[in-house]
Amino acid sequence: MSEQKNPEATQEVPKRTSAKKWTESARKVRGLVRDMYVRAFTEGKPVAWVMFTLVNELFVAMDVVPVYPENFAGLCATKRVGNPFIDRAEADGFSNVSCSYARIGLGYAALWKDMGEIPSFAPDGGMAKPIMMVGSSLVCDTRYKWFQTYSRYMDVPYYAFDMLGPPASTAYRPDVREQYIKYNLAQLQGLVSFMEERLGKKMDWDKLDEIVRRGEKTYVLWYDAYMLAGGAVPCPFPAEDSFNCFFPAFFMMGEVEALDFYQGLYDEIKYKVDNKMGSIPEEKYRLLWGGGLPPWHTMQIFNYVEEQGAVFVFQSTYLPLRFADVPDRITDPLERMVHSRYEAAISRAELDRKLGLFDLCNFVGLGNPLLFVDEFKVDGVVMHWLRSCRGTTIGQVYQKNLLEERTSIPTLFLESDMCDVRDYFEADWKVKLSAFLETLEARKRAGS
Amino acid sequence: MAKGLDWAKRLYENRSQRAKELREEGKKVIGYICAFPPRELITAAGLVPYRITGTLEPIAEADAYLETLMCPYVRSCLDLGIKKQYDFVDGMIWPHTCDNIQKTFDIWKHYVPHSYFHYLDVPHMPDPSSFEFFAKELDVLKGSLEEFGGVKITEECLKEAIGVHNENRALLRQLTGLRKQAPPLISATEMTQVMMAAMSIPVYESNEMLKNIIEEVSTRKDGPQNKATRLLIYGCEIDDIAFINLVEECGANVVIDDLCMGTRDYWKDVVMEGDPLKNLAHRILGEIMCPRTFRRSRGTRQQDLDNRFSYIRDFAKEFNVNGAILYIIRYCDTFEFDAPEVRDYLEEAGIRVLHLEDDYSLTSIQGYKTRIQAFLEMIE
Ligand code: SF4
Ligand code: SF4
Fold this sequence. Notes:
The structure holds 2 protein chains of 2 kinds.
Chain A: H1 24-42, E1 47-50, H2 56-61, E2 65-67, H3 69-78, H4 83-91, H5 100-115, E3 132-136, H6 142-145, E4 158-161, H7 168-171, H8 174-199, H9 205-231, H10 239-245, H11 247-251, H12 256-274, E5 285-289, H13 301-306, E6 310-315, H14 333-354, E7 380-386, H15 396-406, E8 411-416, H16 426-445
Parallel strand pairs in A: 1-2, 1-3, 3-4, 5-6, 5-7, 7-8
Helix pairs in contact in A: 1-10, 3-5, 4-5, 8-14, 9-12, 9-14
Chain B: H1 4-13, H2 17-24, E1 29-32, H3 39-44, E2 48-51, H4 72-82, E3 91-95, H5 99-102, H6 105-111, E4 116-120, H7 128-149, H8 155-177, H9 188-198, H10 203-218, E5 229-235, H11 242-249, E6 252-258, H12 263-266, H13 276-287, H14 301-318, E7 323-329, H15 333-348, E8 352-358, H16 362-366, H17 369-379
Parallel strand pairs in B: 1-2, 1-3, 3-4, 5-6, 5-7, 7-8
The complex binds iron/sulfur cluster (SF4) (2 copies).
């Protein structure tokens, strides 16, 4: 990785950074995103700033509008307005390799405080003031550390909780399962108590139960839709659409709209698969986005490869969790939440383990490309090294090595950042991507 | 055989020597990374604990296995592992402390084979449920060490091991106490060598060495010179003298630290009365002041900051420092997030701060000379 930041990056703002949407469903997402920010201002309900942590159901049940700063950061990057926030956070001493979601989120709060009002260039009106913040250790350290620092700019009570998972090799031991489930449950109970205290009201457990069960159905639809799309030839739902369509699963889980959304997505994909409707006219190369967050600042790059006859048929970064059926004997909604997450994460880790891959439990991030290359008829794997995200970057080289050991499928590493456009060198990406497609072409000709 | 500081220096220069000798005598060596794994359990199982460290030399082979956009310290440790420099380590305890360590678990296991490998989960939260969970994790580790060592760790022998390790920590604190006076009786460069040596030999030998050093240092005439500035160094992993030596050469007495291989490792003891596993869990999760462990606060911002950082300010006062250097390893996320807060907190307490973000390499360290000199001139 070049230590050099791209000095031109923030000046040359292209007309369009986002990618063309291939599905009706993906086209609906922008409206849902806008709604999240607008509702926080207009509905008069309490607002919470939350890290994505698989607990959105709790906010829905408590009638709180959750706003997700990591989503806001991605939105800023897409609109190419993230860098003034990044500069502000760095001016306070935050490192230029700290998660750029965090730098944007912190810079936003800092500028708000400096100016006494929400910066006018904040997309969708910005993030409304919260009455509480919630983070978690799920996925990465940033997710509980970052919010601890918000108190520099706004003094809002903050709660963080653990959601841990054991290595796959021991996860099926009853004592280990019991130990983890007990702990994760206690941690969620702590969160509920915190919310009750902040809101001055008790959790409505019946309501939560209904929401959690709706969530379970939603998770299954999400998973089934994504997997159905991944295996389809031609590909009806390229990765850039899939990067859009995880929004309701991450940030609206438990809501009726989320369930409807995935039902719609499933139906749309099913229809396209049944009718062999692909997105690009001629699918010469099938690619897998095998790791790392996407470049939110330049999603259009996906169209660049499509112009050359290549399509990303799947992305394994935001891999849906398939919630195994939670036994009916578990009636407590919190327990249902903990069980479903544990079993889903573990069953995925177990797949990895059977292939002799990762033993580490990953709730999200780093779905192993080896699990998909055969099933989804993949010709090449592209991974994205992010300068500011350890959570989805560490392990990519290992995955590439395993791919090389066990398949003949080539891998390409691209480097930049999910939001900080100064880490992005477009000419370099285009050269690398074109050269990679040439390699695939040569391999095809050689009949491998 | 060398004595005192010389003993430490020789071990620092050839860290694995003693562990290798012991191995030839039939002992088994257990490596561990980070300050979190409980050495007490390793000792109680009759095994030799050995702290895995890196080197400031350029990383050669690890790049084929790990991304360059991550903690260079972990990459360097893996580099040594790949180069077979940890072949004398029979088993490894891998803690879930930070992302960089946790996410290297599978990779180390795959490419640096040891006959024993144990993943120790460490909660990030400080709640009663977290302590309970962690005590259970320690119990699981105990069982697995028993199996590997072919021994039973009785409560009695665990308590004995805890006692010996408490003594080790007490000796290190006593030695640290000798840095309070002006000039300090032991330099930070020497102290780094002592720490590195102490973590590469069995605790019984380490205690003997430390007693020896305390005796030597207390009456020495060749100690550090008095310099114009007394400094505190805050940060994560410093396992080499290069940086600290540079600071001392620039004209400061580094008299106290808050580092993973420094006071953070030995400032607090394990309580002796009661359940030893619970007590171990309490020390590690509750008392090791590392930003990777969340500290809850329901109070004001100031109360939160005091809860997290007042001990650093207290160190600064107790050791009478007039400046602090924050030495942060790039990509070490939890420290990266805390650093601006620590900087402001200390500056508010009247302590000037130099905040460095380093690549953990000899070349980068040498480049800091002018900045350190300028900082020292400013606070003198
Ligand atoms: S996973 Fe990466 S992008 Fe997400 S919060 Fe963690 S460091 Fe930031
Ligand atoms: S230096 Fe930081 S990131 Fe690296 S191992 Fe230590 S705590 Fe983890």
